[in-house]
Write a structure and sequence with these properties.
Elements (H helix, E strand, L loop, with lengths): L1 H8 L4 E4 L13 E2 L1 H9 L3 H5 L4 E3 L1 E6 L2 E7 L10 E3 L2 H12 L5 E4 L3 E8 L2 E9 L2 E6 L3 E3 L6 H6 L3 E3 L4 E9 L8 E6 L2 E7 L3 E9 L3 H7 L1 H11 L17 E3 L4 E3 L3 E2 L2 E3 L14 H20 L6 H34 L10 H8 L1 H12 L16
Parallel strand pairs: 1-7, 4-14, 11-20
Antiparallel strand pairs: 2-6, 3-6, 4-5, 8-9, 9-10, 12-18, 13-16, 13-17, 14-15, 15-16, 19-20
Helix pairs in contact: 1-4, 1-8, 6-7, 8-9, 10-11
């Protein structure tokens, strides 16, 4: 949607495909970081966006065993919007879609599932799409795969993926929240267990972290045992977890970290999770995808007015974005190896916060550095793509 908005704004005839009838998918990434808020500001959309219901996070606190620490403080980040906006992703997507209706060159097709690629020799010439009215073909100078970590576009293009791996999966669920109930603590780590909670205003969004591949073992213990663990780790959820009535209320997120060796074929480009799946660590995935979209429009919008870009021109997006992706994934792997893997290892030993986190908690300016990495990221993008004249 972000790339569609940017290309439509530039006067490029663009079709965005969404396979569902709406954007309503629970347990998506709902963290809109300062880097994305800055992009919305540059597009003149920030005031409307921040009128949507959201919560603001500045300080990230954690508890390791009995020790409380502060991991990051966004108030120390020199940015125009020093907070993370917690906002349902469907609200963000709907806002972009509604804002994009001002551009005659942008069309959004709902209930339209990209099923395969259209080829002209070795060049991708568009997509085959399943719609309620039957299959159709959409021909295009450029096809861009933004269809996530299980990308059909990527598979059909036979692009090679490098698996980096992750030691955990995540169980997402909602817990009820009483009026006035609040808590700044977002991460709780005990021996063999880890949990993250986000205050979403009228409910708690919860992520219970488990060792990779252990979902069936957790289920085998029973829902009651699982919820007892939750209540022990987060007493504030004691009443709210009553809303979790069956395992259908708990969603499994299979965590992956990977990236493509090549993001392109002639006539084709992959960006976002289709090019590089991120761990949920830091909640950066959505925001990295937005940065990819901004870079793509910056590099290709003007070129698209002249027809299909060459593969080398398309590869400029990878050359621009691969370094930030690699750096972010390296940081996620460091956290996995030095914190999460150790925390999820079974045992009876008392758990203490790693030394590097205790140092960060003790030195406030370091909390600004960690916050900047999460909030702004490596080499953030700014809107430089053209805006077509409108009558």
């Amino acid at each position: 949607m972000m790339l569609g908005y940017l290309l439509g704004r530039a006067g490029i005839d663009t079709v965005v495909l969404e396979k569902h009838a709406d954007f309503f998918r629970d347990f998506r990434g709902d963290t809109v970081h300062p880097s994305t808020l800055q992009v919305m500001d540059e597009l003149g959309l920030i005031d409307g966006l921040l009128k949507l219901p959201h919560q603001r996070v500045q300080k990230m606190d954690g508890k390791f065993g009995d020790t409380s620490i502060r991991v990051a403080d966004l108030s120390r980040v020199p940015t125009k919007y020093p907070f993370i906006a917690l906002m349902p992703q469907w609200d963000f997507l709907n806002f972009l879609r509604e804002s994009g209706k001002q551009f005659a060159s942008l069309k959004v097709m709902m209930n339209a599932e990209a099923a395969d690629l259209v080829w002209s020799g070795d060049t991708v010439a568009g997509v085959k799409v399943n719609t309620p009215d039957g299959p159709v073909e959409i021909h295009a100078d450029l096809t861009i795969g933004c269809d996530g970590r299980h990308s059909v576009v990527r598979q059909r293009a036979n692009l090679e993926l490098t698996e980096i791996g992750a030691p955990m999966d995540v169980l997402w669920f909602r817990a009820g929240k009483r009026l006035g109930e609040t808590e700044n603590l977002f991460a709780r780590v005990e021996t063999g267990k880890m949990m993250v909670t986000f205050d979403r205003g009228d409910y708690w969004q919860c992520a219970y972290v488990i060792a990779k591949g252990q979902y069936e073992a957790v289920k085998a213990r029973g829902l009651e045992a699982f919820l007892d663990d939750v209540k022990r780790m987060a007493p504030i959820l004691k009443e709210g977890v009553a809303e979790v009535k069956t395992w259908d209320d708990v969603k499994l997120l299979t965590v992956a970290i990977d990236r493509l060796k090549h993001w392109t074929r002639p006539g084709l480009l992959c960006i976002g999770d289709a090019a590089h799946a991120m761990s949920p660590i830091g909640g950066v995935g959505v925001n990295l995808a937005v940065q990819d979209a901004v870079a793509t429009a910056n590099l290709l919008a003007a070129r698209l007015t002249k027809g299909r870009p060459s593969e080398d021109e398309l590869d400029a997006v990878r050359r621009r974005r691969e370094f930030p992706v690699r750096m972010t994934q390296a940081m996620q792997v460091m956290v996995q190896n030095n914190l999460i893997s150790a925390a999820l290892s079974p045992g009876d030993r008392p758990l203490s916060a790693p030394v590097f986190l205790r140092i960060i908690s003790a030195v406030p300016w370091l909390q600004g550095l960690t916050a900047r990495f999460v909030a702004v990221g490596v080499r953030p993008e700014h809107v430089q793509s053209p805006e077509a004249a409108r009558s």
